[in-house]
């Protein structure tokens, strides 16, 4: 299976540029043993490389590249498959952009083409190359600091008062050192429940959690609770019972964010939209969770216009290395910015994931990276400040 991987990376500041020709020569020999061909562009700071060959060989070479400490901020821009190689004659050929103008380099690259079809910039891989040469991708490419730049220090003062039967998970603005919401986690339905029984259990659990959490949640913080979206459709009194639970817990509706997952099938979108209107008329906010993981994301934004969306592991995991995931997040942020919808990034595990998303414009986060123990928050601090 002929596979193509295109990536971009940043030369380590401690590595002299003079070693690059020798590095390319060794890479060409290694690539030849794996039947991998391609080209490498260098602009004085960044590398752009196109690798082509058998899938196993390309993946092995790329794994070695990712582990090479002579560069960092490795971002995979494209992984695709094709019937023939674009550049089949070279294990690795270097184009140093510092010595050529963009037009001559682009033509030189086309001249190295070996495809039986005429190479043009209609080809997706070559479009990436052209964008790099013309330096048009800078608004979407963020450099993140090394992992060891930050340390995450637990702060016991951020834990809410304990509540029997309720587990809290904080939503935080790390750089502002602020807890912006607490998510109260309801119990999952036991096995053996089907149909309407599932939604009855879900509603009972949500209302119970609201009652219990109200005793522990501070008055000045938002409380986040997830609910199955079809619970609001199948059970006619669901909204009324939620409002009553909020009042019973001595909370205010404007303090509540009700989260529904995009991955849960909503078979009656109009009925769901009407339930959302009743929630909003009561003052309750709505969040679409797992945004981008399901099939209804943009349709839901158009129909119900939530106050928040929450993106999770399906998009954020290793986002610092994935060009496609970065492009999806950029699109989500642009869309949500136009609609004044706040974006929460959940399931954050790595400092690099947080740094990239923070640079992209996300301010609210959840995940193991920021949770020390229980609901205590681990705030990021530079190692020099500790």
List keywords for this structure.
386 residues; alpha/beta; Alpha-Beta Plaits; TIM Barrel; 2 domains; eight-stranded mixed sheet; five-stranded mixed sheet; 12 helices; 15 strands; 34% helix; 24% strand; Diguanylate phosphodiesterase; EAL_dom; Cyclic-di-GMP_PDE-like; Acylphosphatase-like_dom_sf
What can you tell me about this protein's structure?
Residues 125-386 form the EAL domain. Residues 2-93 form the BLUF domain. InterPro entries: Acylphosphatase-like_dom_sf (IPR036046), BLUF_domain (IPR007024), Cyclic-di-GMP_PDE-like (IPR050706), EAL_dom (IPR001633), EAL_sf (IPR035919). With 386 residues, this protein is an alpha/beta fold. The chain has two domains: 2-140, Alpha-Beta Plaits (2-Layer Sandwich); 147-385, EAL domain (TIM Barrel). Helices cover 34% and strands 24% of the residues. It is built from twelve helices and 15 strands. The strands form three sheets. It has an eight-stranded mixed sheet with strand order 7-8-9-10-11-12-13-14. Strand 13 (342-345), helix 12 (351-360) and strand 14 (364-365) form a beta-alpha-beta unit. The two termini are 51 Å apart. The mean pLDDT is 87.
């Amino acid at each position: 299976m002929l596979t193509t991987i295109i990536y971009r990376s940043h030369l380590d500041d401690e590595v002299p540029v003079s070693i690059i020709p020798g590095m390319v020569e060794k890479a060409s020999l290694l690539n030849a043993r794996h039947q991998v061909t391609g080209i490498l562009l260098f602009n004085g700071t960044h590398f752009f490389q196109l690798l082509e060959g058998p899938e196993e060989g390309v993946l092995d070479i790329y794994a070695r590249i990712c582990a090479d400490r002579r560069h960092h901020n490795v971002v995979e821009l494209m992984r695709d498959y094709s019937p023939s190689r674009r550049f089949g004659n070279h294990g690795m050929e270097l184009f140093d952009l510092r010595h050529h103008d963009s037009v001559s380099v682009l033509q030189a690259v086309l001249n190295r083409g070996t495809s039986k079809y005429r190479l043009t910039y209609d080809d997706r891989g070559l479009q990436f190359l052209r964008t790099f040469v013309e330096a048009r991708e800078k608004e979407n490419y963020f450099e993140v600091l090394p992992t060891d730049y930050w340390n995450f220090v637990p702060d016991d003062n951020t834990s809410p008062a304990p509540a029997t039967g309720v587990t809290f998970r904080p939503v935080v603005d790390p750089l502002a050192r602020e807890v912006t919401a607490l998510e109260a986690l309801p119990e999952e339905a036991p096995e053996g429940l089907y149909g309407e029984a599932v939604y009855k259990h879900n509603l009972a659990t949500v209302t119970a959690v609201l009652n219990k959490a109200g005793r522990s949640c501070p008055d000045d913080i938002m409380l986040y609770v997830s609910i199955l979206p079809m619970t609001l459709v199948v059970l006619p009194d669901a909204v009324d019972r939620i409002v009553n639970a909020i009042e019973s817990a001595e909370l205010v509706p404007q303090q509540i964010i009700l989260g529904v997952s995009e991955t849960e099938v909503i078979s009656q979108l109009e009925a769901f939209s009407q339930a959302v209107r009743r929630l909003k008329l009561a003052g309750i906010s709505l969040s679409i969770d797992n945004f981008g993981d399901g099939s209804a994301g943009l349709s839901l934004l158009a129909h119900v216009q939530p106050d928040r969306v929450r993106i999770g592991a399906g998009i954020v995991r290793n986002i610092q290395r994935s060009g496609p995931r970065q492009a999806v997040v950029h699109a989500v942020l642009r869309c949500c910015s136009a609609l004044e919808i706040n974006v929460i990034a959940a399931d954050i595990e790595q400092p690099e994931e947080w740094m990239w998303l923070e640079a992209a414009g996300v301010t609210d986060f959840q995940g193991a990276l920021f949770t020390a123990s229980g609901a205590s928050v681990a705030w990021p601090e530079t190692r020099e400040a500790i």
